[in-house]
Amino acid sequence: MERKTPVRPRGWRNAGAGVSMVLPAVLIYVALLVVPVIYAFYYSFTEYNGFPTRVPEFIGLENYRTVFGSADMTDTMVITAVVAVAGAVVVNLAALGLALLLQRTNRFNTFGRVVMFYPHVLSALVVGFLWQAILGPQGVVNTMLEKVGTDALPFLSDPDWALWSMILVIVWSLFGVQLILYLAGLQAVPADLLEAARIDGAGRWRTFRAVTWPSLASTVTVAIITSGISLLKTYDVVVSLTGGGPAGSTKTLAYSILAVSFPQRNIGVASAQAVLLILAAAVLALTVLVLRRRAEDDAESIG
Amino acid sequence: MTMTSVNRGRTVRGTALAAAVPLLLVAACSSGSGSSGSEDGEIRMLVNLTDNLDQAYWEKLVEPFEEKTGLKVRIEGPTGKSVAESFPQQLAAGTAPDVIQSVFPDDDTAPELIDLSGEAWAKDTPMFDEYAMGEEHYAVGVGTQTQSLVFYNKSAFAKAGISEPPTTWDELAEDLADLKKAGYTPMQTAGDYQTGLQLQQIYHPTLNQLHPKWQTAVDQEKLSVGDAYKPAFQLYADWIEAGYINKSDVGLSPSQADGNFIAGKVGLYTNGSWFAATLNKSKDLPFEVGVFSPPAADGQAHPGPQGATMANPYMIRKGVADEDGAKQLVEYLVTDPKAIEAQLGSDGVFRKDSGLEQTEIDAQIQGVLDEAPALVAVGEGQGNVRLPVTGFNPKFTEVAQSLYTGASPADAAGAIDQWVDENR
Fold this sequence. Notes:
The complex is a heterodimer. Chain A is an all-alpha fold. Chain A has helices at about 5-45, 60-70, 70-100, 105-120, 125-135, 140-145, 160-185, 190-200, 205-215, 215-230, 235-240, 255-260, 265-300, and strands spanning about 45, 55-60.
């Protein structure tokens, strides 16, 4: 009993110190992330132009009906899904492939890593304008094609070409971070397992399938979720590369929220679109996590 | 009460407090009347910054006013893509400026603005009544910008054997064919906002001859936008198919399109009077520039009505800290001879009897303006002649671009009608 008495105040002091250190971060997190999301949910059930002199009018699910009933808005959701899925696949395949090539530390690989990370340093708006100058009808590529007597390519003037050009430009700009993630993941692959596989006579592909890939599971999960969410929010590159065109073929959901619904002062509709985007990001993250958990369970049951 | 329930109670209270404090802070920050007058006595003026109208231009423009009155004016550029996008966002955030340049009032913003009907100095400003909403006047401007102009390369016309600018659509089609044969890009168009704008510009006179005040007719459901514009969509589709307009133009930036015309590669270029400022700045053009009013409707007199907008409109936000100061600033901007002169010369703006020395191109535009039988509302409309939707121009551009990517005129007409119905 005598020994317990001084312990309790120390416990309270520790708890108090812990709370005082955590509380500011929690307050900032709630104020900057939770509160805006709550507001977005609230406004998505109202008709409101966003001006302080107007009171939001509750209209139930009407904004969601508008979103799903408008061909214009459902098209943006399809385009966003294509950008997110195709972009995430391409960026992760490319980043993993290059990480495997650049994983050994030497001067050339260090230089290669810096070069590959460079696009991420540029602002997305600059990336868009840069590629506009390269891929546009009078851009560098088409001017060169014209000089060698070949027909110009409709990178930004055909709907399908424009969509895939935009996806590849976004992949180019996101690529650096994913590469770093995979390089870090590869450093964590146990050297003794790689050595054991080599002694057992496993080839490069077999070693990758049996040792490297399972060891990278958590890295792949993080890389897919972060790249998928970044791609879902695609806005800046749309503004500077295609402006949503031609004929709305590259108009993503985020672009529709910020460049169409907000300027039209449809705060309710814009909020409903934002809520759907949040849900899409949550579904994406949960799906990847569940798939990974299932794969791990399967592996454990086999083992 | 057990220890567990006490802890749970503390946890719940702690969580509630953690959630409530920021909520209250945010609510405190976001509530109020939207009043956001600058605390340091400055008049905040939101302006569009362009190649022609940069920060230095605006600061120089208000400098004499500051010297004369002792009031300070802070020039602010848009926080988003444009003033049209930024002003509503700033109103919503409670950070709106005192004076707003370059945009017009609408049903949403009008209650947030000061009615200038009672100001004696405002009554004689250009297009004051055309921009009235009901009996109220929220915007005053410096002059008029003409919207329906076709700039042409006189050397190209001479080489193609064209002696006079066209006055009918058939003549225009023949001229486009001749220009193509002569090796020129017959008609220059561009992507971005300009695709829809140019289509509207070239068709304004005909549209307003066939359907006067067409925006009001659409509002009253006597006309659909698709029906109004279907003949124009057909013209564009025919010209694209014939190669008079390049399909790849839809990926071209407006400044690249300007550059193509200035380089002398192009026969015809539809644009507004602001393009004259760009041409005037381009020294030693390799050709002579002509300007004409677009063709008239079949059987109607040429020239038709000219699309026109109030140039450099200014509005004052309701609740501004220094209302008198803001009014003095706007009065200076729209009535002071030197301020007017600076603004007229900067961006292709015209004002009757201004006495300003004009270039050859300006004089031609003034001629088109003087000969026009009427000045008509463009795009979404203005004042009491307005469509029942907002965001018309970006959507119209999207629809116009679909003509370049294979949509039929009927599809384009259907798409714009569907959008109007969804957003009415």
